Structure formats: structure tokens, C-alpha cells
């Protein structure tokens, strides 16, 4: 069974010098923002180790927000982004999924899925802190990575970033937040279209569909995010926080709803046919090739792993 070892929160007195295997934490005083970066050398999907660290960071930020350390490091924004060129994240750990399905290990799928929706739910509630959350995307943001992004208050992306929910390609569905979060943003009809098509969309297309909030030129995501947060006097931050809270009140997300949907995902995925499982395994191999190719790829080159791989 896949183990997700839950870890206690980091010591707030050591912020911003927290150390993780898969994440890098930065603090920007000008914008009062904490940046959660996927490391360049981190796995390009949500492995059990990365999930454990993301949950630990969630708990650490909550402790930080209630500590006296917050006076020294004011905290208004949480930004999720990646330092890997060309890849934000490829989403769920398909190797773990495929191995669990092969051995009919539903418990591993459920354990993994519960950890994911615990994280997504925390993001959807802005970690229960008086902050605004921003997801800043460059490169490929697929599957579970898009589900995590959708839980943030606002999404900013480079116009050539690539978004998609490819799960339909192996006869399952995105079960870790996409149904709930997309419906809250764009309604049920467009949500069904995006999920059932398995199509890949550019950042520009996602902006036109009103899934994301703002686009920027290729190669400018970090500067654009800083500019978006710049705010003399905090007027923009207060307005954004109010808008995000109004969205939560008008379209509430419950942990129970996310759990019930993700358990449907686990049951559906555990029953996929052999041909679908082989397709999933081919996609795992394609992701591994992507990791290897990325080491030698020219900067900015797109190496898209699509649902047709």
C-alpha cells in the first residue's frame, strides 16, 4: 500500500528558511507574499512524498498565520508556482495508480485520493487564513495539477501555458476537485464539456472560457504575479479577499462533497479495462521520457504529454 507519511508543521520561528525535498519557499516582502514553488529537480507529478510535503506546508502556514512571526513577515498572499521550465505539473502519480489497479488495491487509491482532496479543500478555503491565494502557471498544467489550481482564489497563466484534464482517455474522470471547482467557476455545462472532451487548452483559451483570471506573455509569469499583487495601501488585496469570500459563500464547497466524489473516482478507476490500464501505463512511460528529454530540451520548448500519447 502506498504510504503518505503525514508530518508535523514546521517551526514558525524558522520561516522563511523552511526546507523541503520537493518544494522551495520564498518570501516577498514588497507584496507580503509566500511563494510555494515546485523545485526544478522535484517529481513532475504528485508523488506520495510531494503530497506529504504539501500537506505539511499547509499546516505550517496555518501555524505561521497564528504566530507572532507574522508581525515580522506580513502574509497577505500565497502563490503556487513552479521553477521547472515548460512544466508546472503533470498532476496525479499515474505510476502509483497503475500499480494499485494492477493489484486491485483500492485502499491505496482511496488513501491517495483522500490526501489530495484534503489539500484541495484547504486551498479552496484559503487555508482558513485571512489571505488571498494565487496560482501562477507556466508550461503544462494537467490533470490533478489543474484541479489544485482551480481551488485557488485566482489563476494567472502565461498565454501559451497548457491546461487539460486527460482522464477520459483511460475511461475515468478527474476526481480530486475538478467537478466541484470548475462548476463553481464556469457552470455545469462548460465543466462537462471540458472534462468529457479531454481537450488541451492554452492559457489564452482558458482565459476566453473564463476559467482563469488573467494571462501574460510567455516567460513573464513571475514578474506578472508580482505586478498583480503590488498594492499600495492594500486596497486591491481587501477587494480580492472580499470577492473570494463572496464566491465561497455563494457557491460553498464542502469537504464531504469532495470526499464522496473522489471515492467515486477510486471505484471507477479500479474497474477500468485492460486496454485503458495499458494506455495509462503508456502515459507513465511518456512522462518518464519527458523528464529525461527535459534535461536536454532547449529553454521554452514544449514537450506536451497529451491524452492521445
Task: Please describe what this structure looks like.
InterPro entries: ClpP/crotonase-like_dom_sf, Enoyl-CoA_hydra/iso. This is Enoyl-CoA hydratase. By secondary structure, the protein is an alpha/beta fold. 47% of the residues lie in helices and 14% in strands. It has one domain (12-227, 239-284): 2-enoyl-CoA Hydratase, Chain A, domain 1 (Alpha-Beta Complex). The strands form two sheets. A six-stranded mixed sheet has the order 1-2-3-5-7-10, sandwiched between helices. The chain is globular and about 55 Å long. Residues 295-309 have low confidence and may be disordered.
SSE inventory with pairings:
Blueprint (H helix, E strand, L loop, with lengths): L22 E6 L4 E6 L9 H18 L3 H4 L4 E6 L4 E3 L4 H9 L3 H19 L7 E6 L2 E3 L1 H7 L3 E5 L3 E3 L13 H9 L1 H10 L2 E3 H6 L5 E3 L4 H9 L5 H16 L4 H16 L3 H21 L15
Parallel strand pairs: 2-3, 3-5, 4-6, 5-7, 6-8, 7-10
Antiparallel strand pairs: 1-2, 8-9
Helix pairs in contact: 1-4, 3-12, 4-5, 4-11, 5-6, 6-7
Amino acid at each position: 500500500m502506498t504510504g503518505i507519511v503525514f508530518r508535523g508543521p514546521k517551526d514558525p520561528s524558522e520561516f522563511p528558511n523552511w526546507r523541503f525535498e520537493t518544494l522551495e519557499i520564498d518570501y516577498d516582502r514588497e507584496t507580503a507574499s509566500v511563494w510555494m514553488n515546485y523545485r526544478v529537480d522535484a517529481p513532475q507529478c504528485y508523488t506520495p512524498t510531494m503530497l506529504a510535503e504539501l500537506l505539511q506546508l499547509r499546516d505550517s502556514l496555518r501555524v505561521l498565520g497564528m504566530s507572532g512571526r507574522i508581525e515580522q513577515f506580513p502574509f497577505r498572499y500565497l502563490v503556487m508556482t513552479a521553477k521547472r521550465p515548460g512544466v508546472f505539473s503533470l498532476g496525479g502519480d499515474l505510476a502509483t495508480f497503475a500499480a494499485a489497479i494492477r493489484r486491485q488495491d483500492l485502499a491505496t487509491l482511496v488513501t491517495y485520493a483522500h490526501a489530495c482532496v484534503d489539500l484541495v479543500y484547504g486551498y479552496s478555503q484559503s487555508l482558513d487564513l485571512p489571505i488571498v491565494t494565487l496560482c501562477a502557471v507556466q508550461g503544462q498544467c494537467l490533470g490533478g495539477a489543474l484541479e489544485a489550481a482551480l481551488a485557488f482564489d485566482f489563476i494567472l497563466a502565461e498565454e501559451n501555458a497548457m491546461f487539460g484534464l486527460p482522464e477520459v482517455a483511460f475511461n475515468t474522470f478527474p476526481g480530486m476537485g475538478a467537478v466541484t471547482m470548475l462548476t463553481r467557476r464556469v457552470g455545469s455545462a462548460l465543466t462537462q464539456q471540458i472534462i468529457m472532451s479531454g481537450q488541451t487548452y492554452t492559457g489564452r483559451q482558458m482565459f476566453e472560457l473564463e476559467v482563469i483570471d488573467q494571462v501574460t506573455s510567455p516567460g513573464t509569469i513571475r514578474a506578472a504575479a508580482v505586478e498583480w499583487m503590488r498594492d499600495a495601501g492594500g486596497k486591491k488585496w481587501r477587494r480580492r479577499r472580499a470577492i473570494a469570500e463572496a464566491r465561497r459563500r455563494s457557491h460553498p464547497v464542502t469537504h464531504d462533497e469532495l470526499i464522496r466524489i473522489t471515492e467515486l473516482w477510486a471505484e471507477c478507476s479500479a474497474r477500468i479495462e485492460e486496454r485503458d490500464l495499458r494506455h495509462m501505463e503508456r502515459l507513465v512511460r511518456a512522462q518518464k521520457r519527458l523528464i529525461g528529454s527535459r534535461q536536454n530540451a532547449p529553454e521554452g520548448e514544449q514537450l506536451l504529454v497529451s491524452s492521445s500519447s
